[in-house]
Amino acid sequence: MDMVEQENGIFPAVCPLDCPDTCGLLLHKKDGKIVKVEGNPEHPITQGAICNKVRNMAERIYHPERVLYPLKRSGPKGSGEFVRITWDEAIQEITERYSDLIEQYGPESILPYSFYGNMGVLSVDGMDRRFFNALGSSQLKQTICNSAGSVGWKHTMGFGGGTTPEGIVNADLIIVWGGNIISTNMHQVMLIEKARKSGAKVVVIDVHRNRTAQWADWFIPLYPGTDSALALGIMHILFRERLVNESFMEQYTLGHEELREHVKSYNPERVSRITGIPVEDIEQLAMMYGQAKTSYIQIGNGLQHHDNGGMNVRSIACLPALTGAWLQDGGGATKSNSGYQSMNSDKLERPDLRLNSDTRTINMNQIGEALAMQEQPIKALFVYCSNPVVVAPDSKRVQAGFAREDLYTVVHDLFLTDTARYADLVLPAASSFESTDLFGSYWHQYIQLQEPVISPLGESKSNVQLFSLLGRAMGMDEEAFSQSEESMIEEALNYPSNPYLNGVTLEALQTQRFVKLDMTPQQFYLEQLSTPSGKIELYSNALEQAGLPPMPEYVPLKEGYDGERRPTREDNYPLMFISPPNHNFLNSTFSNVAKLQKMEQQEPVLQIHPQDAEALGISDGEHVEAFNDRGSYELKASVTDKMLPGTVISQGLWWDKDGRTRRANVLTPDRLADMGEGATFFSATVQVRRK
Ligand SMILES: Nc1nc2c(c(=O)[nH]1)N[C@H]1C(S)=C(S)[C@@H](COP(=O)(O)OP(=O)(O)OC[C@H]3O[C@@H](n4cnc5c(=O)[nH]c(N)nc54)[C@H](O)[C@@H]3O)O[C@H]1N2
Ligand SMILES: Nc1nc2c(c(=O)[nH]1)N[C@H]1C(S)=C(S)[C@@H](COP(=O)(O)OP(=O)(O)OC[C@H]3O[C@@H](n4cnc5c(=O)[nH]c(N)nc54)[C@H](O)[C@@H]3O)O[C@H]1N2
Ligand code: SF4
Ligand SMILES: [Mo]
């Protein structure tokens, strides 16, 4: 008997959320319903510990506001007024509208908009892609999360993977740089705690004394977007003090002699002026780093959501190449480990089904602008696994785009999100616990399988079910649209180009649950770097050709301040506005769960330094408005010295409520970062006033 049919029991599951930990879960089922979610103690990395968010997952699955039937809009866009229709009516409507649009404007008038609301590869890099490939729609550049940093990393290291988790316990110095891992990667904290018991020191470098900084041994605050300058200052001292590993640099790097000259101008005094960090602290940090036996740097996502985000990551990624930390088990750095688990995307996504090979691509960070395009306008949007009205920058423009009367929008989600409220048609999505899917992790090296534990609630359908149904309804008669999930998984894992996947099979997943990648090739990590030179590129010709500095460099933010350029009276928006994730939501997911809202003080909070609060006449707990030319919204002030003066912080991506805007992204820019066309959420300036 399969899991769905069993009324009672404890069943294995995978956390589907966009979180590096990809925990193994156990779902307790009673009378056919999930009543409890806990960690699976047998998962080698996550070991039975899970976050509070997912412990409350049942509340989300059975939330009274979950969308259970197809809905058709009956009021103005954004009003949230819908009537129930049948699946047959919904599918018929989509196929008719799409056929008309294709005839009149061509298939590129249709744009999918998706991200990783469910990390299952069949859901977001599988049947969905097949459908849009066969349709010939415009393509989305998925740049909203880490693309600036990934490209910065790749220009230095080549391959999209770094230090793997298990070794971290051996490190004696751990630097968490621009990340808030207590909230965003809790199992890394568990491993670091082990290292700490053996004497390791933990340093956090951030613009905010976040939860992770409070837990660290040493917190170093700096001005936003100045991380490259700090990394270059550390390099300056490492060369000066001969704390570099000459033979390592000789063997494994390109451009160390040029770099040695280059960093002479980044003396500690200059770096201190830019970053706001005292000279003594820069000296001490560099000495600690240079003298550590096994140093490890966790490069967070926060510091790459900036105009200079690619370079920030690149500069930091150069540090272990100077000391040779890569030679130690657990040494080095990680930005993302997604490279180890790449799957057979040709088989999964079937790009061969696309007939128009030069289809236009639209950057998801600029969806507001894209929806305002007059020429070759986007006439239809299909949103799934994402909530762009809340998560995309310059949100008022995004909202205006979604409000266009002539735009035909379909949203597939579990809830009537702020985005779904603008849809013409809302389709009910099954949760991952109601579906079959395959999960990797962008941090650890275990692959997992999800099999359905309960039946889809109401009339909801998984992404795979939906897109295969739609494909067939649109006359796509290829076998690709009737393939079973199991067969898709087999094809995804059959990928000799990625040797790490050796031995990972559907059968192994069914019997063992957690199947580790074959990490043998990692032993040759330094010998097989996929940069153009095959070495760690301290000097990058590719960057030079792209018109960017070939060596790590501090480039000030386009919108923002540093220690050398503080705001003046002429600056209307003198505060830097940073809006990173909070502890209890996952991006905007869970922002509608009452228990978790309560743990986040029920509403958006603006942390403001006492000096700034005093100058603006703001007291703790009162309501304020944060604003700039892009928009404004109301928050509750929390006066605190967790940042340097001049920086304000609001954590968490909130949905609007009762007509009140609660979206941080009304203030953020849709400019693209220096690399990877990435998002620049945190290079935003604002002013704040009493409400
Ligand atoms: N609880 C929870 N967990 C999550 C998420 C969530 O929303 N909630 N989101 C998931 C996703 S999609 C991602 S990408 C990861 C992200 O998780 P992390 O890698 O931890 O990155 P962020 O939380 O985005 O940002 C971390 C820190 O960057 C800091 N920061 C901002 N600008 C700068 C700067 O210029 N320099 C430095 N040094 N620091 C800066 C912010 O203050 C913040 O403390 O977390 C995942 N896990
Ligand atoms: N200001 C600011 N903005 C940010 C960030 C920030 O730090 N600050 N972080 C950015 C980052 S790093 C990221 S990754 C993005 C994340 O942005 P998104 O990927 O849009 O994340 P969510 O807001 O969690 O939205 C995911 C949606 O997918 C839905 N969903 C879940 N499972 C399924 C499924 O199986 N099928 C379908 N069809 N839908 C499903 C959920 O209900 C939810 O509404 O946000 C970015 N935006
Ligand atoms: S959100 Fe992250 S920490 Fe929480 S259960 Fe999921 S994978 Fe684990
Ligand atoms: Mo992300």
Automatic annotation (TrEMBL):
Belongs to the prokaryotic molybdopterin-containing oxidoreductase family. Keywords: Iron, Iron-sulfur, Metal-binding, Molybdenum, Oxidoreductase. Its cofactor is Mo-bis(molybdopterin guanine dinucleotide). PROSITE patterns: 4FE4S_MOW_BIS_MGD (PS51669), MOLYBDOPTERIN_PROK_2 (PS00490). Residues 8-65 form the 4Fe-4S Mo/W bis-MGD-type domain. It comes from Paenibacillus pini JCM 16418. GO terms for molecular function: iron-sulfur cluster binding; metal ion binding; molybdopterin cofactor binding; oxidoreductase activity. It holds the Pfam family Molybdopterin. This is Anaerobic dehydrogenase. InterPro entries: Asp_de-COase-like_dom_sf, MoPterin_dinucl-bd_dom, Mopterin_OxRdtase, Mopterin_OxRdtase_4Fe-4S_dom, Mopterin_OxRdtase_prok_CS, Prok_Mopterin_Oxidored, YoaE_C. SMART domains: Molybdop_Fe4S4.
